[in-house]
Design brief:
The chain is an alpha+beta fold and 184 residues long. It has eight helices and seven strands. It folds into two domains: 38 residues, no CATH class; 134 residues, GTP Cyclohydrolase I, domain 2 (2-Layer Sandwich).
């Protein structure tokens, strides 16, 4: 659908809710909304395999954790934002990735229509598929605007999801070490 058609539909929506799409403050809003949506949903145009740089022949075999990775996503059920922090860890098996690539992986998957459960799983499985580590752990903590501004209207509720693969799932000591690293 061409941008002109999308902008017309946004103007129709404004009329539907009782707004005047031609008033000064809204005239250029459809164009701005499309630009914002390009950023918010930019993850569809990115493939994690094209972004993650893998370094082989590494002897490091201890846990690597990046915590408190900020993320923003859009709930596919209400098209409202949810946002929070991701904690991602893995145990290498001869290969590592650049540390900045873990936040980039979170960014790619979060910039799509999502639910938090799927987002958590996609980050874990994406890292597993690309790096083939001994184990992966992902924890997401998020606030959902759909819970804050509609429905139950609870401002301080936070949703926590986790995905554990390999040693993180099978070995209690490994799981506990990950939880200590991320402060859980």
């Amino acid at each position: 659908m061409p941008d002109d058609d999308l902008q017309k539909n946004i103007r129709k929506f404004f009329k539907h809710i009782g707004e005047d799409p031609e008033r000064e403050g809204l005239k250029d809003t459809p164009k701005r909304m499309l630009a914002a949506w390009e950023k918010l949903f930019g993850g569809y145009k990115q493939n994690p395999k094209d972004v993650l740089t893998v370094f082989g022949d590494e002897l490091y075999d201890e846990m690597i954790v990046v915590k408190d990775i900020e993320f923003y996503s859009m709930c596919e059920h209400h098209c409202l934002p949810f946002f929070g922090r991701a904690h991602v860890g893995y145990i290498p098996d001869g290969k590592i990735i650049g540390l900045s690539k873990l936040p980039r992986l979170v960014e790619i998957y979060s910039r799509r229509l999502q639910n938090q459960e799927r987002l958590t799983s996609q980050i874990a499985r994406g890292l597993q598929d690309i790096l083939k580590p001994k184990g992966v752990g992902v924890i997401l903590e998020a606030k959902h605007f759909c819970m804050m501004a509609r429905g139950v209207e609870k401002q301080n509720s936070e949703v926590t999801t986790s995905a554990l693969l390999g040693l993180f799932k099978r070995e209690l000591n490994t799981r506990n070490e990950f939880l200590r690293h991320v402060g859980k």
